[in-house]
């Protein structure tokens, strides 16, 4: 009888332990990549162009975002027939457009230095993260978006905020049912919201040439809807460079 | 054999419960509540009790604040502002500690406040964060009750010592000093005195981790008494890393000791300061040792050093100067001569519990009081309050039926207040009005007159305040001939009748009734308490230091409830565990507590909710924490208390103080516990912890607004928190939960006509959120939408698209807001942006469709939009506003298309010139003509700020459009005249364009054809919708 009891306890424990401990961060991340198309599809990517719209309470603002391997990127919004580059990087200089003068201005040195740390993130910061000097840790299961998720703590290289070095930590939530990332969380480090969490959610995953992208995102309260994704777009270098004035 | 059968039976039971669980959908917490989230009103202007302050050891921008009931807050800006970082856990905090070797990562929190006043809450263990406070994990010591100290080995993050003060209301063997050597996974008790005596302070020599000091305190509270001190209170020292502990009392007086504070000077480990509570008042106060505790010298027994040791027992030494010492106290005291003499700290809220110095500049100080955190820039002489800490401790809340409704309540040591549930730009400090001094408790509004009743502790004063005339009188019931001493609880019950508006009830040991708003009182009951003389000896309460504040008054009534259905049915509950009911307006009373099976005797009756669903129906909430019993007790009766049924399940964690029933759905109930809000949709068979923006904070009282269906909560540590419109929760049942998607029925959405002016608050001030003023579409999703498309569109009744919205995708309840806007107009492209173009027309009152498409499925919900019932604008005027708005909207779009045509034509001409130089002259002529016209249509120079060019047609047209579109009433005659002028210019311009176009079109079209350059304009409809 005693052995029977023990074996039941052992059996229950094994169920509990497998469900709690079977996942490592690498397994979750690896299954995530398999689900969205496979590492072999992602690695050769040279760039992505996303045409999307920001829904600001009924007002749909067209946005074009391009990201290339190596850190080149821009976000361009279209307002009243004008294209305004809201944020751009040629890999070295981060700049954006001043709304008063409509002229390009460089970001401050700290913002630039922090942004450059992510230059090699494309196409996904999680891809080969160890080689990038990042760390991932499996935290456990947590309910996000009403759904049971695997929670991964993801630490990138430290950023500098107002002269002080700080850990750059995000938490990724992968749906336990399909291993898709459905939410991320980061701590807001400056501005009036500092100390609070910025939450992003991802949904409407759809396939583009064998790779799945979330076609609907909410980043810290801002809804974005992707209309078209182009893989390996051709974009002139000048689009990323700080314009001569 | 028998045992095997039992095993099989057990397994079968498991199997059958698994089957029935599949049929019934039971969603708990985050799976169900989705977007339904709480709204914080604060206020922060009077803030709340602070228990501990900790400064980062190397970065003086980072400061942590621990609170009595509001969790832990972190500042990133040197205490200018704070953000909450501990909302998911119990909010009563003993201490915060920062790991000296990993100060940006490892933060420890010991729960359970150690300033043991009567209203103190409880803790549930020790927590650790490894990411600077973003995420927390409970690391054990679940029965520690209150943790006074955490010390992390400066060289090894895995080694941590914890001082456990332990239970306040009973014996506990959990007290003592604990140590972990594996970062908190396992704990070993290193030192223990006895079940009555806990560790009240544990500190480490800053220069030598083997040397530690620990004070132990013998203390006990009951519902009717407090005792500080005994033979076991002592100060100990260890020189071997906590293995052995020896008393260091050389120079201390003999006899019993009370609470002992201890501090070591950061710059000189030989200098120690200690504050003693002793048997003799002339021996109380500050002691100093200059030989690391070998001998002590008594220096000072001023009031500031000896006042209320259980409440103030913190001594802090300047990090740079061992002769500068601060003692917490009623005002806080500072010495600059090594403790010989003291002066008070600068003006701030009284009751200072902790002080911390900036690591670099000792003139910069922080002080934690009963009324929040204060900063000083001049060594404590001048104090400035932090305005972003809404940790106010409400004892009670009531509401009126104004629109928007006001919220009334009283606070621990911060008086009584009322403020609006909604205010332009948010609810800020200036919106709140004070209506009482001292400790505030129940504040109630007269149901029809502009009169507010408020009270202070023990009904020492009950005020009647006329808001209009400012007349203020005191109305507390007074003893009359033949009366015994009236015993009023610290938090005296006061109720306004729902049936007779001038009637007021107040409870001592009797129920007192007034029919004239408190001028005359009659007792309508005998003593309804146990009237136990053993529990009435408050004069001798306190232990070594007498402490007769009235906080321990006992054998008093605590809750009175008149039935909303029958004014002759009145319930009364007492702090010593009686629940009495009368059915004849007080002539006869029946004690029905004995009918409650399973309730321990003399358990405090905290709240009675007389139901709207039956005269004999009521809920009774009991809580026994003052008897060291933290179990939840909530019962329902439907027969005037003859029988009771417990409605508590294992879901509920933390003792209960309040219950609120819904007025429509008898099965929908809200439970206020010491760890937050629980909701049941099935009459208490299952409870769900509600955590969306709702901290695990103690809820002392709740009200449900009948008009708005808002649940208003008085939290004891996070101010007033509101759950707006709970009506969707009424509609949840098994049918709904089994549907893939279900829209909840909502009351019509009101387009509010309100000022767009904001607040005056700076970014450092807390501002309470307003409720949503948008139309809401609320639906339940059975499963989160992750793969494929999901869209939401608003259409008119005929299916014409009005706008698109972003649907929520989560499992559970999703809330989508629509601000009544239609599409905004397409605006002509110019050199600059026209901000007027961002104004969208609003829809008219009427019925609309929300059409949600998810994969192949389409779901439709009809919503009704109505105009503001408070508005005096006529339908005809609204009609005019919409008509003119549409005319101007169309003009904007026509102008946009014209400019588009000009721009396209001009770029064609440029291209043609490049291809054929011979065409240059002709092309330049045409282009110049178009450019000249365009310069009158839109701004073609300047910038968006003070470099702006002279406004052109687009700007003038846009401005008028935006002004009219954003108002509700008909355009004024002046606006219409302005419109005529603009229209004339518009017509002229369009004509001029048409003339130019017809004159030159043939030329450039022909040339384009010859040059093989296609010239195709988008059609108007495509252009304006792209």
UniProtKB/TrEMBL annotation, chain A:
Biological source species: Flavobacterium rhamnosiphilum
Q: Where is the signal peptide?
A: 1-22
Q: What is this protein called?
A: Outer membrane lipoprotein-sorting protein
What keyword terms does UniProt attach to this protein?
Answer: Lipoprotein, Signal
From TrEMBL, chain B:
Q: Which UniProt keywords apply?
A: Repeat, Signal
Q: Which residues form the Sortilin N-terminal domain?
A: 126-279
Matching Gene3D superfamilies = YVTN repeat-like/Quinoprotein amine dehydrogenase
Residue spans of biased composition, Polar residues class: 538-548
Please give a single GO biological process term from the UniProt record: xyloglucan metabolic process
Q: What is this protein called?
A: Sortilin N-terminal domain-containing protein
Which Pfam family name is an example for this entry? Sortilin-Vps10
UniProt region (Disordered), positions on chain: 522-548
Cite the InterPro entries for this sequence. Answer: Sialidase_sf, Sortilin_N, WD40/YVTN_repeat-like_dom_sf, Xyloglucanase_GH74
> What start and end residues bound the annotated signal peptide?
1-21
Organism for this UniProt entry: Flavobacterium rhamnosiphilum
